[in-house]
Amino acid sequence: MPLLAPMLEEEAIMRELLVVFQEGFDEANITVTVNGKEVHRDLGVSTSPLLGIASEVSVELPAKGAQVGVEVTNRGLKAITKVSGKPKSVLVSIEDGRLLMKEGTGREAVL
């Protein structure tokens, strides 16, 4: 029976990242990826004029950092950002026909 190498403590720890979809979403079909693997899909997402937020989703990240991607498939928009350290959230918006992503504080959650 083969022995499995013990997992390093760092490898076993997964972190949670909040992805907050803010301004500019109108019936958007959204796909979220972590290191190229699809982790979430949502259809018909629209920004609430009252809250300025369309949706939010929590995704798990590996402990060593990751590339988080967002694609709005029905508008042909795509963006990827690298996160490392202990990011709490990523804020995503559509401005001037471009998909923008930036690191947040984790306190942006409303829904």
Description:
The protein is mainly β and 111 residues long. It has one domain (15-104): Immunoglobulin-like, CATH 2.60.40. Helix content is 4%, strand content 54%. The chain is built from 1 helix and 8 strands; from the N terminus they run αββββββββ. The longest helix has 4 residues, at 9-12. The radius of gyration is 16 Å and the shape is globular.
CATH level-four homologous superfamily name: Carboxypeptidase-like, regulatory domain
Q: What's the CATH class, please?
A: Mainly Beta
Number of strands: 8
Number of domains: 1
The N- to C-terminal Cα distance equals 49 Å
Which spans of ≥5 residues are poorly predicted at pLDDT below 50?
A: 7-11
User: Rg, please?
Assistant: 16 Å
Question: What is the 3D form?
Answer: globular
Q: What is the count of helical runs?
A: 1
Features:
111 residues, mainly beta, Immunoglobulin-like, four-stranded mixed sheet, 54% strand
Draw up the topology in text.
Elements: H1 9-12, E1 14-21, E2 28-34, E3 37-45, E4 55-62, E5 66-72, E6 77-83, E7 89-95, E8 98-104
Parallel strand pairs: 1-7
Antiparallel strand pairs: 1-4, 2-3, 2-5, 5-6, 7-8
Question: Can you summarize this structure?
Answer:
The chain has 111 residues and is mainly beta.
